[in-house]
Amino acid sequence: MPDTKLKGKTALVTGASSGIGRATALKLAAAGATVYATGRRQDVLDELATAVAHVDGKIISDAFDIRDAAKFQGFIDRAASETGTFNILVNNAGLSYPGSIADADPDKWRQMVDVNILALLTGSQKALQVMRAGGHHGHIVNISSTAARGDASGVYGATKAMVSSIATTLRSETEDDNIRVVNVCPGAVITNFARNFSPETINAVLGMLGLDLEFTPGMTLPQDVQDQINKAAPTLLLHADDIARAVLYAVTQPINVDVFEITVRPAKNLQL
Ligand SMILES: NC(=O)c1ccc[n+]([C@@H]2O[C@H](COP(=O)([O-])OP(=O)(O)OC[C@H]3O[C@@H](n4cnc5c(N)ncnc54)[C@H](OP(=O)(O)O)[C@@H]3O)[C@@H](O)[C@H]2O)c1
Q1: How many angstroms is it from 92 CA to the middle of ligand 1?
Q2: Strand partners, 12
Q3: What pTM value is reported for the model?
């Protein structure tokens, strides 16, 4: 029996070319939604459409840099005009450059602020306008992080704390609309999130897991390798699908139910 909980709904997922965004786009489409997916790599986004060929929903993609506000807002408009509705925005695209403030390159701070915060604001603003104009029921889901409330979690953690603060304001602005704002806060999940981490740290973790893999900066791991790492360390690293299920839960609740925040962590807390 196909899952049709989201049949007739339109969703847009950012950062859908990898990790949590990819798993979320697949999950929402499997529940019947028409999903507009974006990321930077069109070849990977194209594979998503094929992956959901057998389910009720579908995935339509366009690759662009999420910092381009006009493109991002235009993609939301396109989703609404092609389907006649707009119900779910998943603000997922994000990145981290760990490291001390004393030694950091300010351009890396700028990238985190531009993607983790400003793009989330740009998308949320347009989604609200489109949902209100069409009288659509909807959810804005932010993929925040447990780092939002971690001590000394760097500029990255500070960007996620700001996501929580923005969500609180958005929630109060939408109390009288049929629009709910949800923060999902993952702990450690095996994705390509560590692409900007130091190779020493990542290679130490891979070695600890007994995996014969040499990580180099900027490297992205294919999904089958991520699956293998998750199998090797299920108590240390969640699978991206574990987070996608939390998103599906939030967006399938009745619209009067405010799923404020969901924290999803592995059994053991990995400190990188
Ligand atoms: N993994 C974790 O342990 C963890 C824990 C807590 C929170 N999170 C949060 O989860 C979210 C998803 O991260 P992930 O773990 O799935 O990492 P990921 O595998 O690296 O995926 C990040 C996604 O964001 C996209 N992206 C980054 N910068 C972009 C830009 N300038 N323009 C357009 N797209 C951009 C990437 O696109 P391309 O791949 O095409 O470049 C990719 O699709 C992030 O907000 C992250 O902060 C992750």
Answers
A1: 7
A2: 36, 89
A3: 0.97
Testing ligand 1's pocket by substitution, the residue of 22, 43, 46, 95 carrying the most ligand atoms inside 8 A of its CB is: 95
Determine whether domain 10-191+237-264 maps to CATH 3.40.50.720: yes
Domain residue extents for the chain: 10-191+237-264
Q: Where are the alpha helices (DSSP H) in 62-182?
A: 69-83, 106-112, 119-134, 154-173
Atom of ligand 1 nearest to the CA of 19: 16
What is the Cα–Cα distance from 187 to 270, expressed in whole angstroms?
8
Q: Which two tokens stand for residue 109?
A: 């701070």
> Per-residue pLDDT for the chain (272 aa), expressed as one digit of tens each?
778 999 999 999 999 999 999 999 999 999 999 999 999 999 999 999 999 999 999 999 999 999 999 999 999 999 999 999 999 999 999 999 999 999 999 999 999 999 999 999 999 999 999 999 999 999 999 999 999 997 889 999 999 999 999 999 999 999 999 999 999 999 999 999 999 999 998 999 888 888 888 999 999 988 888 998 999 999 999 999 999 999 999 999 999 999 999 999 999 987 65
